[in-house]
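Ex. 9. Protein: Conserved uncharacterized protein.
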Amino acid sequence: MRLLLLVFLLLLAPRASAQEGGVSAHGVGEPALLPTSRPERVTGEIATPRFRLLYTQGSEGTARALSENIEAVRESFVKVLGRDWPGTTEIRIGLGREEYEALALPGGQPPGWAVALAYPAHGIILLEARSLNTPEGPVTLRHELAHVALGQIGGSWPRWFQEGMAQHLTGERIALTHYAAIFRAVAQQRVFEFEDLAQGWPDMRSDVEIAYAQSADFVAYLASVHGAQAMSELLNGVAAGEPFEKAFGKAFHSSLTVEENAWRGGLATRFGWLPLTTSMQLAWLVAPALCVVAYLRRRQQQAARLEAMSQEEAAEDAEIERLAAEAAQQAQPPAQEGILLPWPAPLSEEQREAMDEEEARDPSLPKPTLH
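Predicted structure tokens for Conserved uncharacterized protein:
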């Protein structure tokens, strides 16, 4: 895809092609290429080598923060595209909806759902300051910058093609929300005809999501099926002034209707189940199973807790028995060793004579015997 984008921009000659009453990238009537005065709400300006940032009193901080990295953002586009677009790009930054709309070009008011708006032929981007602090803010800015790049390089494209190419440049086409949007459109049979997205654009937010998603997917489909060379021929023909459908037929040897029908034929297979992970339908499908799993897990945790408590009690009982045995042993008197009586010493000669005399006087005295 990087090679495709590089070839695309190298084949296009830089020229502006906006006309009175033309349609911008957001379906807004883009004003004619006439000099416009600086909006009254603007209180200051910050200039970088390739940008001019106009800010209001409340958005100066955002403008200064953006000025520190906006050149790097543009340089990242240059690396992907292979070339820069001409001129200085102007970014008008307002804080809040009122300031944001007050900075719009005359005759080019932004849609109610948009927090950023590009006027590609004018090289101007309108931006609400607080949107940059949201997770989607930097991607939104890059998306509008991609529209300015395409508009300044040249060519007149159907709206769906502008959006598809812009999302390729910013990488939005891989967002899971896009898969979910197309899944919803397929399930509800709300996939738009690209003929209806050539100039106009839906107003409802849910329809806008579908339009963006299917535009990005169809451009990716064309590039993957027909290859970079055929895509380059299409882009080169439109840049040279050919009607889009004529250039489409010459490049792909097919009609837009045939290719659109082929793309539609694969939607049910490609988007029939994957986006369930982001839909409420999946929640209703898996809720009973999740309840059962949660119940079993709870029972398992309780059983494990009871087993742990039982083991802990057994260990405490064993410790108590051990301590009791030690205490009982310490309470008993120490065992005494046997007392050995000394063996009588042998009688002396005088003692034997005395005993003999006593026996002679009293013969009834017992005599020791040996057994």
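Check your answer against this statement. Residues 156-279 form one domain.
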